[in-house]
């Protein structure tokens, strides 16, 4: 559900002044009227929602933002959550609703991972916010500053932005987008209405992928569609990127084609690896997993992650399962920091050897 912290009324005074053209950085924006070459357009942009009604999920959040806009009570926004969950798409759809063909004049889009210092706040953002709002007929419209990946901003830049937000509230609204809300200073959080975008449910990813499949005329069997949904992990951007890259490599987007394109181990390979881990000796298991890893070009980190998911399907005492998952999490953590693969493969096999001993003891 949406977490509403504060609301700020929009200034209704009519003001007509020239505006500086907005600078678009970060995620590519394809607005109404743009006609990029269809073959050159990434599908994540080609099929980006053009209106709030087209946003795939999070209807409670989208409807709340839509209602606040209709009531002329749009607050400063802070949208946070994992990548590919619709944060940027929601704000861009909102901007299209507010400004239409004037969107490029009324929106300043910056990517804070590139423009993260205090100079950007003092120059680009303040210069844009300090100009007066634009009027459409008899209705005054505030401008919009879209700051993507705001959690990459330095602390000094965030404190400076806090002051800019306070100073230019009458004619500008600020929308901050980030993955980790804990990296946004409390002073900024308290000035925004916060909305959390959770990972998308499988049904929403599946429905949107089906639309793209039909529009592109792709050959995707049910097993291939299931693989796309599973590997996306609730990330719509990731799902569309996998779909497009697999299509470029294979005419038919089968389950095997999807896994080969992404480099993830096939489910049958994980079942085989899990069997070796649970039944073979240390030396045999080490040799067989190493051979499969080399032959199929698999990353040990991906193997550990998939084996962890497989553990949930195995019947075992809860205490053994919890300990096994904790040990696997430790191995995954070490692998993310570049620890030696051979050492961590040995740790993986040793972890299952201990779990196997615990299972035998529990059965007696």
H/E series, N to C? HHEHHEHEEEHEHEHHHHHHHHH
Please compute the radius of gyration using only Cα atoms.
Answer: 25 Å
Mind telling me which CATH architecture of the largest domain this is?
Answer: 3-Layer(aba) Sandwich
**CATH homologous superfamily caption of the largest domain:** P-loop containing nucleotide triphosphate hydrolases
Number of β-strand runs: 7
User: What's the structural domain tally?
Assistant: 3
Low-confidence blocks of residues: 1-26, 29-36
Question: Could you name the CATH topology of the largest domain?
Answer: Rossmann fold
Specify the helix fraction band. Answer: 40-55%
**Gross geometry:** elongated
| Widest beta sheet: strand line-up | 2-5-6-1-7
Give the count of helical stretches.
Answer: 16
| Whole-number mean pLDDT | 84
Class of the largest domain, according to the CATH hierarchy?
Alpha Beta
- Briefly note the structural class of the backbone: alpha/beta
Give a quick account of the main beta sheet: strands, pairing sense, barrel closure.
5 strands, parallel
Task: Report the portion of residues in β strands.
Answer: 5-15%
Describe it.
This protein has three domains: 43-196, P-loop containing nucleotide triphosphate hydrolases (Rossmann fold), CATH 3.40.50; 202-262, Helicase, Ruva Protein, domain 3, CATH 1.10.8.60; 267-363, Zinc Finger, Delta Prime, domain 3 (Up-down Bundle). The protein is built from 16 helices and seven strands. α9 packs across α10 (236-249), α12 (267-279) crosses α14 and α15 (318-336) runs antiparallel to α16. It starts with 42 loop residues before the first helix and ends with a helix. The strands form two sheets. The chain has a five-stranded parallel beta sheet with strand order 2-5-6-1-7. Strands 3-4 form a two-stranded antiparallel ribbon. It has 364 residues and is an alpha/beta fold.
């Amino acid at each position: 559900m949406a977490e509403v912290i504060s609301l700020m009324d929009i200034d209704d005074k009519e003001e007509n002044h020239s505006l500086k053209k907005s600078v678009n950085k970060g995620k590519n924006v394809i607005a109404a009227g743009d006609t990029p070459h269809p073959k050159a357009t990434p599908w994540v942009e080609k099929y980006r929602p053009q209106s709030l009604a087209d946003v795939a999920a999070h209807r409670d959040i989208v409807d709340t933002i839509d209602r606040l806009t209709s009531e002329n009570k749009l607050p400063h926004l802070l949208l946070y959550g994992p990548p590919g969950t619709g944060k940027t798409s929601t704000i861009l759809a909102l901007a299209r609703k507010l400004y239409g063909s004037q969107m490029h004049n009324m929106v300043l889009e910056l990517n804070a991972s590139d423009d993260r210092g205090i100079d950007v706040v003092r120059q680009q953002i303040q210069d844009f916010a300090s100009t007066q709002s634009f009027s459409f007929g008899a209705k005054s419209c505030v401008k919009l500053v879209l700051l993507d990946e705001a959690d990459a901003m330095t602390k000094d830049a965030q404190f400076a932005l806090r002051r800019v937000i306070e100073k230019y509230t009458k004619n500008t609204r600020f929308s901050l987008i980030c993955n980790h809300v804990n990296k946004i200073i409390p002073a900024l959080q308290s000035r925004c209405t916060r909305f959390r975008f959770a990972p998308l449910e499988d049904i929403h990813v599946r429905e949107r992928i089906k639309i793209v499949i039909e529009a592109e005329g792709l050959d995707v069997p049910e097993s291939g569609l299931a693989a796309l949904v599973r590997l996306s992990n609730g990330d719509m951007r990731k799902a569309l990127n996998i779909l497009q890259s697999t299509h470029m490599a294979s005419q038919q987007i089968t389950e095997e084609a999807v896994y080969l394109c992404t480099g993830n181990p096939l489910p049958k390979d994980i079942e085989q690896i899990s069997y070796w881990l649970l039944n073979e000796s240390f030396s045999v298991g080490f040799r067989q997993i190493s051979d499969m890893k080399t032959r199929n070009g698999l990353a040990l980190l991906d193997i550990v992650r998939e084996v962890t998911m497989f553990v949930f399907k195995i019947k075992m005492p809860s205490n053994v399962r919890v300990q096994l998952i904790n040990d696997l999490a430790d191995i995954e953590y070490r692998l993310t920091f570049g620890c030696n693969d051979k050492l961590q493969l040995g740790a993986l096999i040793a972890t299952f050897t201990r779990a196997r001993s615990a299972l035998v003891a529990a059965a007696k």
